[in-house]
């Protein structure tokens, strides 16, 4: 007896529930903040029981982690597409930084997280700051791979350190911007050119 079809259908249903739950959580965060997100409200919005929702996300925190991870994956896809448009390393880094700053500050989820009261215990900010390592690693790897492919003669240590520093500084500027976007992009591009020993 072939049981693959029912199993495949079950997997599709679970994926749909998961996606719908993340979409519902995103809308709530955008409109009312993370503090307004309740598992009961998410289950109602999706049209499933709380028990079914808890099979996908064991807690509200896990739901938040999944939400941030999905945003991170979309962000990395955009960075990858943007950086591949250029053949010049410094120009590519500048475009990548401009994309990151622009899309990051315009992202409704990020805006909602950053506008939460600093003393609010029920916020996504701790998940974003302490759980952002996968995003930093992925973005750094994208940049490092690109630089290495375009300029294979560069010192690998310079490439690794520069790529890692740029991504971490970009995340830092998104969380606490101290300058306007163009100044941030210009300064980080200059830093990258110096770090890679290339002319800015």
Structural description of this entry:
The chain is mainly α and 200 residues long. The chain folds into two domains: 58 residues, Orthogonal Bundle (Arc Repressor Mutant, subunit A), CATH 1.10.10; 132 residues, Orthogonal Bundle (Tetracycline Repressor, domain 2). The chain is 76% helix and 0% strand. It contains ten helices and no strands. It starts with a helix and ends in a 5-residue tail after the last helix. Keywords: DNA-binding, Transcription, Transcription regulation.
Q: What can be said about the biggest beta sheet?
A: none
Order of helices and strands: HHHHHHHHHH
Q: What do the pLDDT scores average to?
A: 84
Overall outline = elongated
Count of DSSP-assigned helices: 10
Strand content: under 5%
**Can you identify the CATH class of the largest domain?**
Mainly Alpha
Q: Please tally the β strands and state the result.
A: 0
Secondary structure category: mainly alpha
Q: How many discrete structural domains?
A: 2
Indicate the percent of residues in helices: over 70%
- N-to-C span: 65 Å
CATH topology of the largest domain: Tetracycline Repressor, domain 2
GO molecular function: DNA-binding transcription factor activity; transcription cis-regulatory region binding
InterPro entries: AlkX_C, Homeodomain-like_sf, HTH-type_TetR-like_transc_reg, HTH_TetR
Protein name: TetR/AcrR family transcriptional regulator
Keywords: DNA-binding, Transcription, Transcription regulation
